[in-house]
Specification:
2 domains, Aspartate Aminotransferase, domain 1, about 375 residues, single chain, 7-stranded mixed beta sheet, Aspartate Aminotransferase, domain 2, alpha/beta, binds pyridoxal-5'-phosphate, 14 helices, 12 strands, about 35% helix
C-alpha cells in the first residue's frame, strides 16, 4: 500500500490503538511520575512527566507527520514554542523578522532585543528582493517568516527566502499557524523549523492554549530546544494534549470549510462600495496571490481583513452591529471571530485603524455574509 494521506493520519490520530483495552480514543495520561523496578530500571521507559509525558507522544507524532518533519515538540502556548527556539540560539544572535507579523511575538522579540538577548532587524513582507539583499549583508542567524502575515495577509515566498537564507548560512523558522499543514508545508520548501500556535486551527475549538515546534532534521539548535523544554520546564498539561489531539482529528475538514467560506466572503465583498479594501490572498488582485497559489494547496486560509470606508469610527460602528460573528481576539476556531485589530494591538500598532480582522469558522457561509452585509449598513 502507498503511504497514508495526511487526512487519514489525522482522522485516525495516527491509527494508534492503546493496549490493553484497545481504545480507539486515546487514554488521558495524568501521571506525573512512573514506577521504578527493584533492579533500578524504568519498565515504562519514563522517569518523570516533565517532558516525558506519554500524553505528548500521539499529538507530536501526528503533527510531525502532517508537517513532514523529523520531530515535533508541544509547548504550553505558541509564545512558549517561539521562545524556546529563540533561546536555543547563541546569546546575542541576530534575528530577522517581518514588519507585519503576530503582534505579541513582534513585541516580545523587541523586548528580548532591548535586553540584549538577540539582535533584531525587520524586513518588508512585500519586498522579496530587499529580503534577499538583507540576508546577504547582515547575515542573520535566524530568519522568521509568517505567511500569510497578521493582520494584513502579505505573502512571503518561502522557497525563495529559504534558498537565499541557505546561501547566507541562516536558519529559517516559519510561523505556520494561519495556513496549517493542510495548506502549506514549509519544511518541504526548505525551512528548518515550523512553529504553531496550536491554540488556533490545530486545536480549533477555543478551549486549549498550546504551541508546537517541528524540525526538518536534528541539529545542535534542535537539541537545545529539547533541553529548553526538559529543563526550562515549559510543558503542556496532559488534558490539553489530549484535547489537542481530539481537535487535530478534524483539522482537514475544518480548514477546508473555513477556506472555502473565506474565499466566498472575500469575493462577495471585494467590490463593495462600503469597503476600502478586502485583504485576502485568494483574490487575484492581492499582490501575493501568485506566490500564495504556488505554495498553498487547496485554499488561501480562513483569515481575511476588511478595511471599512469611513475610517476607524465606521469600522468600530460596523463591528458593534455584528450578530453572528463573535467579537473576540484569537483565530482558527469553529466559530467565526472578528476584532478591531488596531485597538487590540494598542499603542505603536502598524495595523490600519479602519481594519476589521475576520477569522472564518465553519458556520453556514450565507449566515456570515448576511451578518457582514447588515453590519456594514447602508452605503
Ligand atoms: C496566536 C498566535 C501566536 C501566539 O500563540 P499563543 O498560543 O497565543 O501563545 C503566534 N503566531 C500567530 C500567527 C498566532 O495567531
Amino acid at each position: 500500500m502507498k503511504p497514508l494521506s495526511p487526512d487519514t493520519l489525522a482522522a485516525q490520530g495516527m491509527g494508534w490503538i492503546a493496549e490493553p483495552s484497545h481504545d480507539l480514543a486515546p487514554p488521558i495520561h495524568p501521571s506525573s511520575t512512573f514506577e521504578r523496578a527493584a533492579d533500578g530500571s524504568y519498565p515504562g521507559g519514563r522517569v518523570y512527566a516533565r517532558d516525558q509525558s506519554p500524553a505528548y507522544e500521539q499529538p507530536e507524532a501526528l503533527l510531525a507527520a502532517l508537517e513532514g518533519g523529523h520531530e515535533a515538540l508541544l509547548f504550553p502556548s505558541g509564545m512558549a514554542a517561539a521562545t524556546a527556539l529563540i533561546q536555543a540560539l547563541e546569546p546575542g544572535a541576530r534575528v530577522l523578522a517581518p514588519r507585519a507579523m503576530y503582534w505579541s511575538l513582534r513585541n516580545w522579540l523587541q523586548e528580548l532585543a532591548r535586553r540584549g538577548q538577540i539582535a533584531l532587524d525587520f524586513y518588508d513582507n512585500t519586498d522579496g528582493e530587499a529580503l534577499t539583499a538583507l540576508l546577504g549583508t547582515l547575515p542573520p542567524r535566524l530568519l522568521w517568516i509568517e505567511t500569510p502575515a497578521n493582520p494584513t495577509w502579505e505573502v512571503t515566498d518561502i522557497a525563495a527566502a529559504c534558498a537565499a537564507a541557505r546561501a547566507a548560512g541562516t536558519l529559517v523558522a516559519v510561523d505556520s499557524t494561519v495556513p496549517t499543514p493542510v495548506l502549506s508545508r514549509p519544511l518541504a520548501l526548505g525551512a528548518d523549523f515550523v512553529m504553531h500556535s496550536a491554540t488556533k486551527y490545530l486545536n480549533g475549538h477555543s478551549d486549549v492554549v498550546a504551541g508546537a515546534l517541528v524540525c526538518r532534521a536534528d541539529s545542535p539548535v534542535w537539541q537545545r530546544v529539547r533541553q529548553n523544554r526538559a529543563q526550562g520546564g515549559a510543558v503542556l498539561g496532559p488534558f490539553e494534549a489530549w484535547l489537542l489531539l481530539r481537535g487535530m482529528r478534524t483539522l482537514h475538514l475544518r480548514v477546508r470549510q473555513s477556506c472555502a467560506a473565506a474565499q466566498r466572503i472575500a469575493e462577495t465583498f471585494q467590490a463593495d462600495p462600503r469597503l476600502a479594501a478586502v485583504l485576502y490572498p485568494g483574490l487575484p488582485g492581492h499582490p501575493g496571490h501568485a506566490v500564495a497559489a504556488a505554495q498553498m494547496q487547496g485554499g488561501f486560509g480562513g483569515m481575511l481583513s476588511l478595511r471599512v470606508v469611513g475610517g476607524e469610527a465606521a469600522a468600530v460602528a460596523a463591528i458593534g452591529r455584528l450578530q453572528v460573528f463573535k467579537r473576540a481576539t484569537s483565530l482558527g476556531s469553529v466559530e467565526s471571530l472578528v476584532e478591531h485589530r488596531a485597538s487590540v494591538e494598542g499603542p505603536g500598532t502598524l495595523c490600519p485603524p479602519d481594519l476589521l480582522r475576520l477569522s472564518i469558522g465553519i458556520e453556514a457561509v450565507d449566515d456570515l455574509i448576511a451578518d457582514l452585509d447588515q453590519a456594514l449598513g447602508a452605503s
